[in-house]
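Sat 14:20. Reprocessing the chain from the morning session after the first attempt stalled halfway. Input below, unchanged.
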Amino acid sequence: MNIRVALFDLDGTLADSLPLIQHTYQRVFKEMGIPWGNDDVMRWIGRTIMDIARHFAGERAEEFIQRYQHHYHRDHDLYTRLFPGTLEMLQDLQQKGLRLGIVTSKGKTGAWRTINFTGLDRYMDVVITAHDVDKHKPLPDPILKALSSLHHGPQEAVYVGDSHFDIQAGRAAGTMTLGVTWGMAGREELQRLEPDGLLDSWRELEQYLCFGGYNGEKGS
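Finished this time. C-alpha cells:
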C-alpha cells in the first residue's frame, strides 16, 4: 500500500485537548443540572457537539451548546497543548512528500482556533470540520471529502485517530486505519476494532507508510 495522504483526527490525537473538553463539559453539566455520571459524555468524543447536546440535554440542546462554546473558548488557551513530538512528526511527513490533513467532528471555529493556536496550520493541506459535511463520523463522508479535495483515493491514505468513531470512519472510507493509545480510548478498546495498527508514540508511524514496511495485515 503506497500511502500518499495522512489524515488525522484532532482532539485526543494531535491535540492534547481532552482536559479542556472534560473541564468544559463538567461546567456545563453542573450549570444545567445534568447528572455527570461515570464520564459518560467523554465516550461521545468524536461525535459532533449537536449530537452530544441532543443526547444529554434533549430540548435544551441549544442552551447546552451555547454554554459549552462560552466556557470552551474562554479557557481554550489555558488547557490546549499538542502531544509530544506532533509537530516534528508532521514536518517529517511533509518533507517526505505526503499530503496532510485534519478530519474532525469539531465545529469550524473551535477546530481552527486549536489548529492556529498550536501551529498545526503550517502543515495542513486540508481541514474538514463538522461544518463542512452533512454526515459525520463514524460515517465516511468527512474523510472522503478530504481525499476528494486532495485528488487522492482511499487506497492511498491513512486515517489516524484515538476513538472507535475514527476507526469506524476510516474503515468505512476504505483507508488504512491507525489508532493512537494516548487519547480517548485505551489500547484494549481500540484493538477490539481491529485497526491496521496501534501507535504508542509517533515514532511508530513510519513503519505503516509508503517508505516503511506495511504489509496489509490487521492488528498491531
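The chain has a mean pLDDT of 93.
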